[in-house]
Amino acid sequence: MLQLSSCAIFSTDRDCQDDVSLSFASLTLFGGNDLLYDSTPETGKSRCKMVHYVKMEDGKVMPIQEMLKSIERYNPEHLKVIEAYVEEQARENQYDLEANLACLKLYQFNPNLLNLDITYIILMKALTNFPHTDFVLCKCLLLPAQMNDETVKEIIYLADILEKCDFSLFWSRVAKNPENYQKINGFYDSIRKFVCHVVGITFQTIEKGYLMRLLGNVEENVLRAWLKRYGWKEENGLVTIATQEDSIKTKHITEKIDFENLAPLMANCL
């Protein structure tokens, strides 16, 4: 059963109000649960965050983030709403770890409701948040049925490769099934951000060609964009990440010793 309701979504962001044409949102009924969402494209200055609302049994409506802080996060009737929210994260390049963990926990309590496609999205979104430990948290909530799935095994292997910083192997594995990762908007750039994080704390200078391979065999224009983003300089085939002068900081040390503290020592020297 599908119900449509004319509910306007208002933004407090001035840029969003100016640049985004806010349309009526739809309330879709999923077995007694309402999902409220709006579609707001990228603006030149900012991005309006999509808002989800969940309808409780008592008729009260609350944002999904508030629901996740309450006991209602364990209500399986809200699973369809959370799954739709997970899919939106993939489309809109957003990320909500608490919602994703709640979804996996509901699968634990209700194995008959397991959705492997949603599991893939949650794990791949966790990959995009390296070096944080989100992936470990998600992995700990997986059921045997999920762990034995071949795609899940591959994603776990990719996480292991990322932890080892074997980026060349990572990109070669991703290239075998690119359609799986293209579903996650911003997946490649998020991994490249992690690569740049590792490079930034590891190298002072790095060969330009090697850096391009670490970033996934990117083109020259893509490399220049990442160099500009991090303020790195390229000259004669070498990319300067940092110099010793940037990391060396002078420190003045002042010690204050009272004469009373020295008196016993001087007396022993007599």
Q: According to CATH, what is the topology of the domain at 51-164?
A: Serine Threonine Protein Phosphatase 5, Tetratricopeptide repeat
- Structure class: mainly alpha
Instruction: Give unreliable regions as ranges.
Output: 1-48
> Over the alpha carbons, how many angstroms does the gyration radius reach?
26 Å
How many DSSP H or I helices?
15
What is the tally of beta strands? 8
Mean pLDDT: 79
Task: Describe the fold and architecture.
The structure is a single chain. With 270 residues, this protein is mainly alpha-helical. Among the domains are: 51-164, Alpha Horseshoe (Serine Threonine Protein Phosphatase 5, Tetratricopeptide repeat); 180-247, Winged helix-like DNA-binding domain superfamily/Winged helix DNA-binding domain (Arc Repressor Mutant, subunit A, Orthogonal Bundle). It is 50% helix and 11% strand. The chain has helices spanning 14-19, 64-67, 79-92, 97-109, 116-127, 134-139, 144-147, 150-163, 167-174, 178-182, 187-202, 208-214, 220-230, 244-247, 259-269, and strands at residues 7-8, 24-30, 33-37, 53-55, 61-63, 205-207, 233-235, 238-240. One of its GO terms (cellular component) is eukaryotic 48S preinitiation complex. GO terms for molecular function: ribosome binding; RNA binding; translation initiation factor activity. This is Eukaryotic translation initiation factor 3 subunit K. It is found in: Cytoplasm.
